[in-house]
Design goal:
By secondary structure, the protein is an alpha/beta fold. 46% of the residues lie in helices and 13% in strands.
């Protein structure tokens, strides 16, 4: 198919997308899906956060969605969930987000998330029945230390003897729990016994005999038990993940995304039981987690992801996958792991990429439905490059570090393209992040 024919086919099916004006068509496309996965092409773009927030708010108010599940750690997100449900001592949204201390803090500690959390709290204030209040939950597994601490704190309240046993089991990690990558290295290379048996035994203890933990009847007791069980699941998955890091990228990636899918399943079952009807969840994660891996270079290399697992585990009409793309602009990202956030200029997309194809339509910002269309899948099924900017952005090596081949017709159910985007604004001050626009010559200094 020629470029001109391709562009004409995309123009035919594309719908304008302007915030606060053009969500209706996407909501129609989503239909009765109860799991809506919203991606992002970067971890630091303001428009992606705003679009996902607006779509989520519309799903909550118009389609009765129950929770937002995000690419974040369970304990940190749970603190936010308690705040928006008026069940915490935090006084402001920024306070509730203070738990996000691990790199990259700006991913959740930014002005767009503050606005979303404010909205969620205000929305919940109008809801009388606790089981109908919207929640905010984390799907990730990095929180080894804080999840183990949360399990012990819970048990100290309901069963001090069980807390003592949990403390002894988790003591296997010793001081290495503070730096789980060191634990993974030591356990993998025989410098220390691994703690796999201990975290499994603790999870079994917390999930096999629950009657003793529910002496106080009521929904709060059920919720608190579920939250503790999920922290025990995180500890189990985190222990395995940090060991797998030294055996290959594919294994650790697959373990992480499988944990995300398992957490989503557990959360969905819990909310369904709690409210007595089918739970509906919005998921926020990077395109690399949301888009079906089987349609990408990732899948060809043996990686699976959350979007693929959701499609495999649920009926086709139950889920809807939305990807996001951009041509150029600015982004908040670091130059290396654990480095401060910087305001960086995003290179114009490559000529052989989907992003450039969308840019060349001349439509600006638009929503492109893919599922159920006749004309759109053909041009999007041709293997092209797709850009993925995570928490690190390296413009000079962009082709190698940030592009991969994909068949977008099978990867997503719809794509939202925002042609020029701007960097999300962190809450925490950094001398490397300046509010003024990045000069056009960045990063080359010409």
């Amino acid at each position: 198919m020629s470029d001109a024919t391709t562009i004409e086919a995309l123009r035919e099916d594309a719908h304008p997308f302007i915030l606060n004006q053009h969500c209706e068509q996407l909501l129609k496309e989503i239909g009765d899906a109860s799991i809506v996965l919203l991606g992002e092409a970067t971890h630091g773009t303001q428009e992606f956060y705003r679009a996902r927030a607006e779509i989520s708010q519309r799903l909550i108010t118009e389609k009765g969605f129950d929770a937002i599940a995000v690419e974040a750690d369970w304990p940190d997100a749970l603190r936010v969930s308690r705040y928006i449900q008026h069940a915490s001592k935090d006084l402001t949204s920024a306070d509730a987000l203070a738990g996000f201390e691990r790199f990259p803090q700006w991913m959740w500690r930014n002005t767009e998330v503050v606005a979303l959390v404010d909205w969620l709290r205000e929305h919940n204030e109008k809801i009388v029945r606790p089981q109908w209040k919207v929640g905010f939950f984390g799907l990730d597994l990095y929180s080894l230390r804080s999840s183990m601490d949360a399990v012990i704190r819970y048990l100290e309240k309901v069963d001090p003897e069980a807390a003592r046993r949990a403390r002894a089991r988790y003591g296997c990690f010793d001081h290495l729990a503070e730096d789980p990558q060191h634990y993974g290295y030591a356990a993998t290379f025989g410098m220390k016994k691994d703690c796999e048996e201990e975290v499994i035994r603790q999870l079994v203890a917390l999930t096999s005999d629950t009657a003793g933990y529910l002496k106080h009847e009521g929904r709060d007791a059920l919720d608190e038990l579920f939250y503790a069980q999920q922290n025990a699941r995180v500890a189990k998955s985190a222990e395995a993940y940090y060991r797998s890091m030294f055996r290959g990228r594919d294994e650790s990636w697959n373990l992480r995304d499988t944990h995300m899918a398992d957490t989503l399943d557990a959360l969905r079952r819990h909310i369904t039981d709690r409210k007595g009807s089918r739970a509906k969840l919005v998921v926020w994660a990077h395109n690399s987690h949301i888009g079906d891996a089987r349609a990408t270079e990732m899948g060809a290399h043996g990686q699976l992801n959350l979007g693929q697992l959701v499609r495999e585990r649920y009926d086709p009409d139950e889920s809807y996958l939305v990807g996001f793309t951009t041509h150029d602009g600015t982004v908040t990202a670091a130059s290396e792991w654990d480095a401060p956030p910087e305001l960086k200029k995003v290179n114009p997309s490559r000529q052989d990429s989907f992003e450039r194809l969308f840019h060349d339509t001349g439509l600006g910002d638009f929503m492109l439905p893919i599922r159920g269309r006749i004309t759109v899948p053909d041009p999007l099924s041709e293997q092209k490059l797709e850009r993925a900017i995570g928490v690190i952005y390296l413009p000079d090596s962009e082709r190698v570090s940030h592009y991969f081949h994909a068949d977008m017709s099978r990867q997503f159910d719809a794509v939202i393209h925002i042609d020029r985007t701007t960097a999300v604004r962190p809450l925490d001050h950094s001398v490397h992040w300046k509010h003024e626009e990045v000069p056009e010559t960045y990063p080359f200094g010409l």
